[in-house]
Amino acid sequence: MKIQIMALAALMLAGCGTVQTVVRSDEAAAKSLKEQKSYCGAIPRIYSGVTYDFCYLNAPLEKGRDSQTYTNAPAFVLIDVVISGALDTLLLPYTIYRQQADGSIILN
Prior knowledge:
Pfam families: DUF1375
Keywords: Lipoprotein, Signal
Mean pLDDT: 82
Number of domains: 1
Largest sheet: 2 strands, antiparallel
Organism: Pseudomonas prosekii
InterPro entries: DUF1375
Protein name: YceK/YidQ family lipoprotein
Radius of gyration: 15 Å
Number of helices: 5
């Protein structure tokens, strides 16, 4: 039971980058980053989870929020970068094929 809870927690944490770009549709990933107003124009499918996380970090600050105000969001995204990197490595054969067949995920 304890192992299952830990595995579920890890999968939920990894859900941000890799699951957003590999499992969900291209439109869902693009919509999510558009809502964050990310400056990224496209996400390559190879290591797309890591790229998604960096695009998420590359979004402008919310209106009214001071750049000196600390939040936990960057820490969680950086943890997800490590997990997404591992999952993206496991999914390389699939993502290389998808990159060749479909190209990058266009955001703009």
